[in-house]
Hints:
Elements: H1 5-33, H2 48-67, H3 71-96, H4 101-121, H5 142-162, H6 164-168, H7 178-191
Helix pairs in contact: 1-2, 2-3, 3-4, 4-5, 5-7
Amino acid sequence: xxxxxxxxxxxxxxxxxxxxxxxxxxxxxxxxxxxxxxxxxxxxxxxxxxxxxxxxxxxxxxxxxxxxxxxxxxxxxxxxxxxxxxxxxxxxxxxxxxxxxxxxxxxxxxxxxxxxxxxxxxxxxxxxxxxxxxxxxxxxxxxxxxxxxxxxxxxxxxxxxxxxxxxxxxxxxxxxxxxxxxxxxxxxxxxxxxxxxx
Length: 198
């Protein structure tokens, strides 16, 4: 099982990088077209200049993490950007309306991605077959990243129970027992354990 960790970590890094690049492209499209995106992230700002700048940062950091070129720097820059979004935009929104599930969800998603970026920053260079190592010299913020990734799962799990009937409507029609899957996914989020490599 341990021999699979580096391979799974590499696959995860690729998926994460692709997601950031796509978000960056969406930001740039929005900045040029100035029209809303049906499937865009909810945290796109309204100022075209800021949106374009953030889009470029997302694309460049995503490419850096994907290729392994200065992946540590790319991960830290991306984590800092996402954390700024949480602190400046979503923390005040949650404080102003604590019962709004949308703000909790979007803020938690960003915090999750911030954690993933910190973990990516501390991973071995692309192509390495060794297990990702955490330590003060190797990856000082990787452990923080894992915690930041895990904490929002509690929010997602609780929301699956609080809004189970709504979540059930998101399950495709051809899958039976929609409410069961809402509770099952919520339970899975809450049962996820934070385990260090080793």
